[in-house]
Amino acid sequence: MATDVRNVEEKLDENLLAVLPKGGQVVSVSPSGMSDYVNTYRIEVSMPDGSTLVFFEKEGSGQEGVELMESAFTSETTTYEFIPEHVPRPIAKGTYKSRPDVHFFVAEFFEMIDDDIPRPDSYMSAVAALHMRSMGKSPNGKFGFAVNTRFGNLEQDNSWTDTWEEFWTRQMNDFLEREDAAHEGEYHAELERLRPLFFDKVLPRYLRPLESDGRSVTPCLLHADLWPGNVKYKEDGETVCVYDACAMWGHNEVDLGVFRNPRYPLGKPYLKEYWKQVPISEPEEDVDSRNTLYMLRNQILLSTLYPQDPKLREIVVSNMRLLVEKVEAEELEAANRNMAPIQAHL
Question: Which Gene3D superfamilies does the UniProt record give (predicted)?
Answer without folding.
Answer: 3.90.1200.10
